[in-house]
Design brief:
There is one protein chain. The protein is mainly alpha-helical. The chain has a single domain, classed as Arp2/3 complex 21 kDa subunit ARPC3 (Orthogonal Bundle), CATH 1.10.1760.20. The chain is built from six helices and two strands. A two-stranded antiparallel ribbon has the order 1-2. The chain is globular, with a radius of gyration of 17 Å. The relative contact order is 0.13.
């Protein structure tokens, strides 16, 4: 195994572990459904895509959710929340990768974070309507969300939650980027070359 490949694997494992810890430090937002909790666990995945590419970012998201599920379990017995979190993370990080790859500057990163936030908010609204809320209802033996209840949960809960979460992630990552940009470019050169 080459040094570069081993280094990537170690960095992915470290970022995945940090991401798992950050996922544990979650908190709800006032006036939104309490099952929706903000955490900053996408930040290590963004670092991974910026330094090693999309497979690394997706790997960090996957590792984070697998570790979280093993540590915390799931009320449904099926990792519905972890699957939803993985999907949320991928919807958030992939636009960042594609935009930042073309425009490697604070401007490109900001555009990527904005598009990633919109992608996450819209994508998760659609997926919660079609997949995740019905899965929760099924596995928790709850009556399904229908009609106005489904509309309220998605439009008044999930959509604003993901927009707020994306805005918070954007602010935190832009602050980190100011001090990490040299390290990020150095890692890109060493790991992606």
């Amino acid at each position: 195994m080459s040094n570069k490949k081993l280094r990537k694997m170690i960095l992915i494992a470290m970022l995945g572990s940090i991401s798992t810890v950050l996922m544990q430090l979650n908190f709800p937002l006032p006036a939104l459904p309490p099952f929706l909790k903000v955490d900053f666990s996408e930040i290590p995945a963004v670092l991974a895509i910026m330094t090693m590419g999309p497979i690394a970012g997706i790997s960090v998201e996957l590792l984070k959710n697998v570790l979280y599920w093993f540590m915390s379990g799931s009320p449904t017995g099926v990792p519905v929340g972890e699957i939803a979190n993985f999907t949320t993370g991928v919807l958030f990080i992939m636009p960042i990768y594609y935009i930042f790859k073309r425009v490697q500057s604070t401007k490109g990163l900001t555009a990527g974070l904005i598009i990633g936030t919109v992608s996450m908010a819209v994508g998760m609204s659609v997926l919660n309507y079609a997949v995740f809320l019905p899965m929760y209802s099924y596995f928790l033996n709850m009556p399904p969300y229908v009609g106005d209840a489904m509309f309220d949960v998605i439009v008044k809960g999930i959509l604003p939650f993901n927009l707020i979460k994306g805005a918070l992630l954007m602010v935190v990552f832009l602050l980190l980027y100011k001090s990490l940009h040299k390290w990020i470019f150095k890692q890109q050169h060493q790991l992606m070359a």
